[in-house]
Predict the 3D structure of the following.
Amino acid sequence: MNNNKNLLRINIGFLIAQSAGTYREFAFDLPELAVEDDQELIFTAVKGSSIISRAQQGLLVQGNFSAETPSTCVRCLNDFQLHIKTDFDELYAFKEENATDSGLMVPENGYIDLKPLLLEYLLVEIPINPICKDDCAGLCPECGCNLNVIHCEHSGHITQDERP
Ligand SMILES: [Zn+2]
Ligand SMILES: [Zn+2]
């Protein structure tokens, strides 16, 4: 299940040798991305790109990703695929004195692994109260039916337009 080939591990050794301002864009399309310390949480259809630029003080990583994750709507209790998006900018510094609050450093092995960073950014995009759609009608407080699917006798007021 766990694919050893981490497609989010990028060889950046060549960029370090370039002059400031040089950049490369990397595109990603991963069928799934597992959160190692949470078996129930998995991201699917992880797509996006990352521009890595050689800056004076390090490598600037600009990411732009979208993904889906299985979720349950708090209004109608249906399971659905939650679509999330994230954008981030992070500097991997050459020297500790130039590191940002994230404390990211250009790894000595010449590879930047975007996986932990991307997971961190995707996780904060998951709402505490996910809703399957903005206008989700939820469940009827009387009989508990899913008002997105059927109109029960308790939701009569919505038939106003049909009155003669
Ligand atoms: Zn819903
Ligand atoms: Zn009802």
Q: What stands out?
A: Residues 159-164 have pLDDT under 50 and may be disordered. The chain has two domains: 9-133, 134-164. The helical segments are 13-16, 115-124. The longest helix spans residues 115-124.
